[in-house]
Design goal:
Layout lengths: L3 H7 L6 E6 L7 H12 L3 E4 L6 H11 L3 E5 L6 H12 L10 E2 L1 H5 L7
Parallel strand pairs: 1-2, 1-3, 3-4
Helix pairs in contact: 1-2, 3-4
Bound molecules: cobalamin (B12).
Cobalamin binds next to helix 2, strand 3, strand 4 and helix 5.
Length: 116
């Protein structure tokens, strides 16, 4: 990943900005990192907040970077309610129209939960 990331990022024309992070209470980040790398490969400037992010971290990053996309990641089912709260808060922030994809293993492998 360390080797591929800069190569992918250099190969595509720039086309937007994304804030991505794993939500509070969750330290899983392999999937987030893969998604981030793919986004960079598609020409997206990535602001990676890392793991265990409180809502305030997303809000600060949205205000500071004005992203086109905000992505949240979580693998623990226990973080589902927090994703919901974070999504509501960030949806009311500076860029309410920014798409907000969420990613989580439980989301892909079972019936999609109701987040919003
Ligand atoms: C690796 C792993 C860990 C590593 C994490 C290392 C790291 N740096 O991430 C370590 C060992 C630290 C770990 C810890 C724990 N883990 Co763990 N872990 C896993 C494991 C084996 C693999 C997850 C993984 O990386 N998959 C590979 C990546 C590529 O897939 P992915 O994350 O799903 O990502 C894809 C999609 O979800 C999506 N995606 C992800 N993020 C995003 C974001 C956006 C914006 C988008 C669009 C898409 C997207 O795209 C990705 C690429 O396809 C899973 C079991 C499994 N087989 O899945 C358990 C699992 C997730 N862990 C689990 C648990 C319980 C824990 C612990 C609580 C264990 C403990 N008692 O301490 C702790 C968590 C502590 C915490 N507070 O977070 C459970 C969760 C159960 C549940 N239903 O909640 C699982 C399912 C294991 C199990 N069967 O019990 N874990």
């Amino acid at each position: 990943m360390f080797i591929l990331r800069p190569l992918l990022a250099a190969s595509a024309p720039k086309q937007g900005k994304m804030v991505i992070g794993t939500v509070k209470g969750d330290i899983h980040d392999i999937g987030k990192n893969l998604v981030g790398m793919m986004m960079e490969g598609a020409g997206i400037d990535l602001i990676d907040l890392g793991i265990n992010n409180a809502v305030e971290k997303y809000l600060d990053a949205i205000e500071q970077h004005q992203p086109d996309i905000v992505g949240m990641s979580a693998l623990l089912t226990t973080t589902m309610p927090y994703m919901k709260a974070a999504r509501r808060s960030t949806g009311n922030s500076a860029r309410p129209s920014a798409p907000m994809p969420i990613g989580a293993m439980w989301r892909w492998r079972s019936r999609p939960p109701r987040i919003s």
